[in-house]
């Protein structure tokens, strides 16, 4: 009997030791980030990295990143390297990382793969994004009220739903306060090329635009606007320090709440690979930057009132009747675009000058 008790105690101690060892092994959640552009440029990757720095302060997180990773085979190599090194969560922050991440995720079923802005999933890979169109609408209001020429320039990267949706929301905001406003779009077909982005902004300024905004990763368009004595609206982060004389506000990201949610779920063993995250202004993932000193108080008040409506869920933005560029009603009165249609948006609203190609 005594021998049996000793065996039971030893067995119990072995189980406890194994549990403690496992707990120690998982004390740190290793999180890897893959960025499309440099983190120091105040743009898209900078905003993502601010979220990484926020979770890196958590006692159970150990993070790392690789910047300026091209979409395609190069990104597959970087993602694969993180997985092989035993990272628990890998964030791929650019749309073009989607297919490479799908491929790698199938080889590492115990790793959580988070892809930004895409639509493909696997059992252990899902998507995350923010409802940036809400902030775009508000910055569009600012542009519409500040423009004197009624021509607003938009430097855009690629004609994918994410970018088209933002252009449309911005235009709806501008025309809600200034029905004469038009938004001219120039495509650069690149996420990050400061010189090309600046040249695109200059071409819009030459067309008579007196406010420039963008869906690009660098502050090049902001610099062009300031050099011409015109206004600018930034993207990704507050770009006021880079163009203080022209910067009205910016549509900004705050990834910390979403990243924290993901790593907590992974740590607790409850992360679900089939649950895409698309958080909005009410959850703090998107916002607008502080207004520049040149923005009148009445403009600020009107935009802040609209922001409160969005946060409260009383302004879905894409609510009918809405027309496309040809003047055809696409969203009938009383109808609201649901998420699948928002995520697949491929047409421009009335007021946009440009094509979706």
From TrEMBL:
Keywords: Signal. CDD domains: PBP1_BMP-like (cd19963). GO terms for cellular component: plasma membrane. Residues 28-305 form the ABC transporter substrate-binding protein PnrA-like domain. Gene3D superfamilies: 3.40.50.2300. InterPro entries: ABC-Purine-Binding, PnrA-like. Residues 1-23 form the signal peptide. Pfam families: Bmp. This is Basic membrane protein A. It comes from Maridesulfovibrio ferrireducens.
């Amino acid at each position: 009997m005594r021998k049996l008790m000793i065996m039971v105690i030893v067995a119990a101690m072995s189980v406890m030791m194994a549990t403690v060892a496992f707990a120690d092994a998982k004390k740190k959640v290793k999180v890897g980030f893959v960025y499309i552009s440099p983190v120091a440029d105040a743009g898209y990757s900078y905003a993502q990295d601010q979220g990484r720095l926020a979770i890196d302060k958590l006692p159970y997180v150990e993070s790392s990143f690789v910047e300026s990773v091209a979409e395609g085979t190069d990104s597959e190599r970087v993602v694969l390297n993180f997985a092989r090194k035993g990272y628990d969560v890998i964030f791929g922050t650019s749309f073009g990382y989607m297919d490479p991440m799908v491929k790698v995720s199938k080889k590492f079923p115990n790793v959580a793969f988070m892809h930004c802005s895409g639509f493909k999933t696997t059992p252990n890979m899902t998507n995350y994004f923010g409802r940036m169109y809400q902030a775009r609408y508000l910055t569009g209001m600012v542009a519409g009220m500040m423009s004197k020429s009624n021509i607003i320039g938009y430097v855009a990267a690629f004609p994918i739903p994410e970018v088209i949706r933002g252009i449309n929301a911005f235009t709806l905001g501008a025309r809600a306060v200034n029905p004469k406003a038009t938004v001219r779009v120039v495509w650069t077909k690149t996420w990050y090329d400061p010189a090309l982005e600046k040249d695109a902004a200059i071409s819009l300024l030459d067309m008579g635009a007196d406010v420039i905004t963008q869906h690009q990763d660098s502050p090049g368009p902001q610099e062009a606007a300031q050099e011409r004595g015109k206004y600018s609206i930034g993207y990704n982060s507050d770009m006021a320090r880079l163009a203080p004389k022209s910067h009205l506000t910016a549509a900004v990201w705050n990834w910390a709440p979403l990243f924290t949610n993901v790593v907590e779920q992974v740590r607790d063993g409850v992360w679900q690979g089939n649950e895409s995250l698309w958080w909005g202004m009410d959850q703090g993932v998107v916002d607008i930057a502080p207004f520049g000193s040149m923005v009148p108080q009445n403009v600020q008040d009107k935009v802040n009132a609209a922001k409160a409506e969005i946060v409260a869920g009383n302004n879905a933005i894409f609510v009918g009747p809405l027309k496309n560029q040809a003047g055809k009603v696409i969203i009938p009165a009383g109808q609201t675009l649901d998420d699948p249609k928002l995520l697949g948006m491929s047409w421009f609203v009335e007021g946009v000058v440009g094509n979706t190609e």
